[in-house]
Each structure stands twice: as structure tokens, then as C-alpha cells.
Write a structure and sequence with these properties.
mainly alpha; 11 helices; about 80% helix; transmembrane helix
């Protein structure tokens, strides 16, 4: 009985660490802080906090929706979770490599033309902040893939807890955006971005490898 509980705990903790690492790396509040400040430029601190609150709520709604119906949507198109592991892993890998090279990911941050046509500061909470910058292809892939690991109630609790923890960190960072920006050096942001890029690339490789083992068992 004790051994069984220990194995369950290890599985739950492994799920939590992997999910948190992937989700935090993609939605990273610190590396997305300059984007938040840019699209809310000109707003008073109180208005910035309203945008931060709306952004966190939109991320919660979008993320919960993709987690709840993502697998069913894939089934409608005849796409398996392992297909998504490979394709989504490639998307996440490109995001990670862009972070390592100091380049914004066009799949999350948009092209140069799209960035220039972003809406007015008071309407940016949903587009582009919540979607596609924070809840973009990489985030959606991560949410759906880790949702497929939910087999019992405790898994669902761990999953929800990790997702809410990342959103809380995001909310607190954006809520205090002006104060944090004054104290956080450019070098610190660059170092964190590079480190998260490396972590994200490693997670992406594991996603791709796990998918290929099932799709192409001869490679295992």
C-alpha cells in the first residue's frame, strides 16, 4: 500500500513539474513584461492594472476551454494526441529556439505588420495579450497534451493547480508591471529568456520523441 502511494505521488509530482516548466516557459511573465508595457504604453497605472486583470481572466477562460475540449476537437479531425505531440513539439521547439536566439516568436507575438496594427491600449487585454501572445499555439499544445495525462481526480487537481499558479504569477507580474520594470535590468530579462528557451527546447524534444515512439515504433 505504501509503495503504491509513493508511486502515485511520484507520478503526480512528475506531471506537476513538467507541466509547470513547460507552461511557465511559454507564458513567462518576465519575458512578456516588455510586451505588456509596450501595448499598454500611455495608460495610467490604474488602467494598466485593469488590463492585467482582464488579461488573466481571458487566459483562464481560453486555457480552460482548450484543456476541456481540445482532445475532442482533435478527434473530430482524426488527429491523435501523439500526432499533436510531434506537430506541437515542433511548434514549441521553434518558440524555444527563438528565445535562445533572442528573437520573438511570430506564432505567439505576431509578424511585424501584425504588431504595428495592434489595437488601442485599453482594448489589448484579449488581443494580442491573451491571444495569441500568452495563449498561442505553444500554450494550447501544452494544455492539451498534459490534459491527456489526467486519469484520476488527483491528476485533475494537480493540473488545475499548476495552471492557476502560472496565471497567478502572470497576474501579479502584470499588476506590478511599472514597479518591476524599474527594478529589472535588461540583462536579467535576457538571461531568463535564454534559460527558459533552453528548458522549453528540451521539453519540446521530449514531446516529439514520445510521439514518434508511438507513431513509428521501429525507432524505439
Amino acid at each position: 500500500m505504501i509503495t503504491g502511494r509513493k508511486e502515485t505521488f511520484e507520478m503526480d509530482s512528475t506531471l506537476a513539474v513538467g507541466f509547470f516548466g513547460a507552461l511557465f516557459a511559454i507564458m513567462n511573465p518576465i519575458t512578456n513584461l516588455p510586451v505588456f508595457l509596450s501595448v499598454t504604453d500611455g495608460l495610467a497605472p490604474a488602467e494598466q492594472r485593469k488590463v492585467a486583470t482582464k488579461t488573466a481572466l481571458y487566459c483562464l477562460i481560453l486555457g480552460a476551454s482548450f484543456a476541456a475540449v481540445g482532445s475532442q476537437t482533435l478527434s473530430l479531425f482524426g488527429i491523435s494526441v501523439d500526432d499533436l505531440r510531434v506537430a506541437g513539439g515542433l511548434v514549441v521547439l521553434m518558440i524555444g529556439l527563438n528565445m535562445l536566439n533572442g528573437k520573438p516568436s511570430t506564432s505567439h507575438h505576431g509578424t511585424e505588420g501584425e504588431r504595428q496594427s495592434y489595437p488601442e491600449p485599453d482594448t489589448v487585454a484579449f488581443y494580442p495579450l491573451a491571444f495569441p501572445i500568452l495563449v498561442g499555439p505553444g500554450t494550447i499544445t501544452t494544455l492539451i497534451l498534459y490534459a491527456s495525462h489526467i486519469h484520476k481526480p488527483v491528476d485533475a487537481i494537480v493540473y488545475a493547480g499548476v495552471f492557476l499558479a502560472v496565471l497567478l504569477l502572470l497576474f501579479v507580474t502584470f499588476w506590478n508591471a511599472a514597479a518591476i520594470a524599474k527594478r529589472l535590468s535588461d540583462n536579467a530579462r535576457v538571461i531568463m529568456s535564454r534559460f527558459m528557451g533552453m528548458i522549453l527546447s528540451a521539453i519540446a524534444i521530449s514531446m516529439i520523441a514520445a510521439g514518434l515512439k508511438v507513431l513509428l515504433p521501429g525507432l524505439a
